[in-house]
Amino acid sequence: MAISVVICGLVRDKQRLLKKIQNYSDWRGQGLVDQIVYSTWIGEVDSYSGLRKELEQSKVTILEIEEPRLVLKGGHQLHQMVSFYYGLSALNNQDQFVLKTRVDLADNHESMLYDFANGTPLVDDFVGVGLKHKILVENALMMYPFLCGDAQFFGHIDDLKKTVNMSAEMEIVYNRLAVEQTFFFQPFSDCKIFKQHFYWNLPHISEIADRRDEQVREVMDSNYMSDALKAWWLILDSYFKVGWGEYDTDYPELHDFNESFEHNGASKIIDENKTDIIVNQRFITSLNSLFTIDMRDMIKGKVAERGSINMFNIKREIFDEYQRFLKQFSDLPSPKATCSASKKLLIHGAAQHFFVKDENDSASKRYHEQVTALRRENDFLRKELNVTISNSFFHRILSRFLPRSTIVFFKYKMPRLTDFYARYLMRKKGK
């Protein structure tokens, strides 16, 4: 079986791109890879001297698209989806397994070849979303439904097409979701249990790492939030494969759900931000073995409930549980929902990263270059010096109370001041 490869996005690093292309070309010579598509924006390839010729010599299908002017989310949700959508559409064989990847943040390695040759297992489609084969992801976050690594994932083309989401709903209604979640939530976006869960702007543990244990206890002692997490774990087991290669039977020994959060080993790690990252299917298998038959059936029944929810009529006990958690751990905006007992219909939480670029918007390009530089600096500090950067209390207060228009004005009209603020006032360091 030969798979195809869709590389999405900017070049960023010409030599790294060419190295990846060489890997795929070598594997094509072994009969493991069929078509290689590079899906990017008009003008991107030609901004690197000699790149077009080298890609053509490697028999890469070059797909050039007009860059969207609408920007959704800080991670460019619409840009990623458009590049991926057209990349899948450009494949000659519309009945095969496909690797979606990008130049940066994703590496090739020999363990991928097992899945290239064998594909992924069939799903247990208990929700009825129409997926046929499991989608392989390289990691998944235990506490955050559908937050999986999206730099590189693998699956049958029919299933991958179901992850494409170009809707502004993810920016307006579910504006707290990361771009990665918009990919993998899409097939399950009609499930009531997740719709309700995502009405709240829940914080990531990395933002309150010093209170991780307290947060985990609060979630696991809850009724509705814990059901949403357990639903996610069942979906991970039924619809996803985490990690490349053959299934490993060296399962970690877990005795209860609370203990599973303390596990830190080869199949699930707790990173420097205190985030629980599942990196191998073994952990999911062990985690799901903790479900009793009755509990499994109950959670599956909740996940199978699909359709619309009246966001202005959330049950009092559900609303109070989520609000208690939000007020205890977060300074994020209020939910996109109101309690059934409330007399006032009020929806807070404006879109977070929503703007339209001018045709030659150098200001927005400059801002995103600043953000990229800061992220790289953070990665260096964390990996090389064991220094963790998080938002300062001052920044959290300003982010909560400053009008969105003011924030946008500073970002794009006063880049030097924004750069100074980001470097010296926005962040705090911790070992």
Task: Please describe what this structure looks like.
This protein has 431 residues and is of the alpha/beta class. The protein folds into 3 domains: 1-119, 3-Layer(aba) Sandwich (Rossmann fold), CATH 3.40.50; 122-149 and 172-347, no CATH class; 357-430, no CATH class. 42% of the residues lie in helices and 13% in strands. The chain contains 18 helices and 14 strands. It starts with a strand and ends with a strand. The model has no long low-confidence stretch (mean pLDDT 86).
Short characterization:
The chain is of the alpha/beta class and 431 residues long.
Q: Provide the number of structural domains.
A: 3
The residue-averaged pLDDT reads: 86
Uncertain segments of ≥5 residues (pLDDT<50)? none
- What proportion of the residues is helical, as a percent range? 40-55%
**Shape category:** globular
